[in-house]
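Write out the 3D structure for:
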Amino acid sequence: MKETGETEVKDLQEKAVQFIDREFKRHYDDYLKSLSALRSLKQQYPTTYELEYLLIRSLYKDIPLGETEAAVKFYTSITEKNWASIPDLYGRAIAALFLQRTGKTDIAQAIVKSLREHAIHKPDLGMFWANARAYSFFFNNAIANQMFIMRAFYETGASSQEMDEMKLWLLKQKQTQEWESLPGLVSSIQILLQTGSNWLEDTGRTKIQLGNQTFDTSKGDAGTGYIQRVIDADEITPDMSKATVIQENNVPGWGALYWQYFEDLDKIETAKTGLNVEKSLFVEKTTSTGKNLSPVTEDTSIKVGDKVVVRLVVRSDRDYEYVLLKDMRASCFEPAEQLSGIRWAQGTVYYQSPRDASMNYYFYNLPTGTYIFEYSLYATSAGNYSNGISTIQCLYAPEFISHTSGGRVVVK
C-alpha cells in the first residue's frame, strides 16, 4: 500500500509539472512573437512569474524538461546576466535559490552577498531589510520575503549567527502580527526549526528582578517559559520602580511590565514605545488666499464656532496588526464628520468611528512608517476644558502602547 501511494503521488506530481511546463512554453512563445512583431527591446531581467517557475522546476530535476528546455535556458541566462536589475528582494532571493540548486553557485553567492550588504542589523530586531513592507496577502509581504531570503542564505552556506539574527526578526514580527496563512505559517515554522542554532534545546533561563522579588521563567510553561504575575497595590514598594532582567542563555525572549494607576487626565505625561502617536490642534481660518491653519498653543484661544483641525502623527517601528488609535476630545467639540466607515489613506486601510467622547481608528494592518491623520471639529461652547489624551495600542501585542500628554483647551 505504501508503494502504491508513493506511485500515485509521483504520478500527480509529474502531471502537475507537465502542465506548468506547457503553460510556461506558451508564455515563452508569446514573448518571442511579440518580440518579432513589435521589434521591442529584449527582456532585461526575468519577471516574478518566470522566477517562480524556475524555482519550482529546480525541485523536480528528475522530470525531463522536454519542449520547455529552450525557455528554461533563456530565462536562466538572463537571470545570470541581469540579476542585479531584479527590483524586489523576493525576486532576488528566488533567483539565488534556483541558481544555487542548478549548480550556478558563484552567481548565487554574488546575489546573497548583495543582499547581505543591504541588510540592517539591530540588537532588538535582528537582521532584516528596511524596504520589505507588509501587505494584505501573506506571500506578498515582508514575512514571506524574509523567509525566502533566509532560505537563500541557508542553502548558500550562511553562518549560524546570521541565521539566528534573521530568525530573531521573524519572531519579533510574530509578536505583533497574526499569520493567518496556513502555508505561510508552516513555512515559517520550518525555517525557524531548520536553520541557525536550536533554541528549543537551550537549558538556560531568564530571571526578572523587581524590587526584592525574583521571578524565574524555569517555572513557566514548557517550551516558551511563559509566566504571568499580578502584584496587588498593597504589595507594591518604592524599590519596584526598578526592574532588572538577567538572560542566562543565547535565546531571545521578551516580556512586558504594566504599572497601572489612576491620574487626572491633565497631569498625564507622554509615554512612547516603538508604536507612538503625537497630537496637535489647529484653528482653520479662511482668507482671501485660501485656508490657513494656526497652531493652538497655551497663548491661543479658540472661539465658539471655530473649525479646529486635529492632526495625529503615528509612527510604527515595525509591522503591526489589530491596532486601535483612540483620540479623546474636549466636551466643547463636535466632529464635523459624523458617519463611521472604511477609509483609505497613505497606503493603509482603516475604519474611522466618531464616538461620543473620542474619534477611533481601527487598523487591521499598520506597516512600518509614519502616518498623518486629520479630522475636523467645531467649537460649540465656551469654557476651560480637559482635552484628554490620544492612545495607540496593538491589541494583538498589548505591551506596545503609548499615549500623548494631557492638556487644556480654552474656548471663548
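Confidence is low (pLDDT under 50) at residues 135-139.
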